[in-house]
């Protein structure tokens, strides 16, 4: 493990074009609760907001792994090529809250073989989301 001063990559930032920008901000910042880090306005109505999503990782899976995850999480419904997985404290409760706020439910929260409680949704900006709650706490 390298310390923060020797890491060649400092941050993972997922940049998403949101056709309905106000709805996406309301959903991800106000409903889901991602804190606003910074925001900017530019010429021609340009708007951007950077939301804190906690620690970022990049998960690379081969097609067989994706099929296995789709079978476990979503009754085999095919996931998008890019899917945003968000760790939350209460995946079932957060799933209900996000559906009430307009997300499309793809699959209810269910326990996985790797001891997490996962659900799948489609949120604003056409993002496919997996909400996961770790059932066994991993030491930081």
From TrEMBL:
Signal peptide as annotated in the record: none
Database matches in Gene3D superfamilies: 2,3-Dihydroxybiphenyl 1,2-Dioxygenase, domain 1
InterPro entries linked: Glyas_Bleomycin-R_OHBP_Dase, Glyoxalase_6, VOC_core
Domain VOC: 10-134
Domain of life (superkingdom): Bacteria
A Pfam family the protein falls into: Glyoxalase_6
SUPFAM superfamilies hit by this protein: Glyoxalase/Bleomycin resistance protein/Dihydroxybiphenyl dioxygenase
Protein name: VOC domain-containing protein
Taxonomic lineage: Bacteria, Bacillati, Actinomycetota, Actinomycetes, Micrococcales
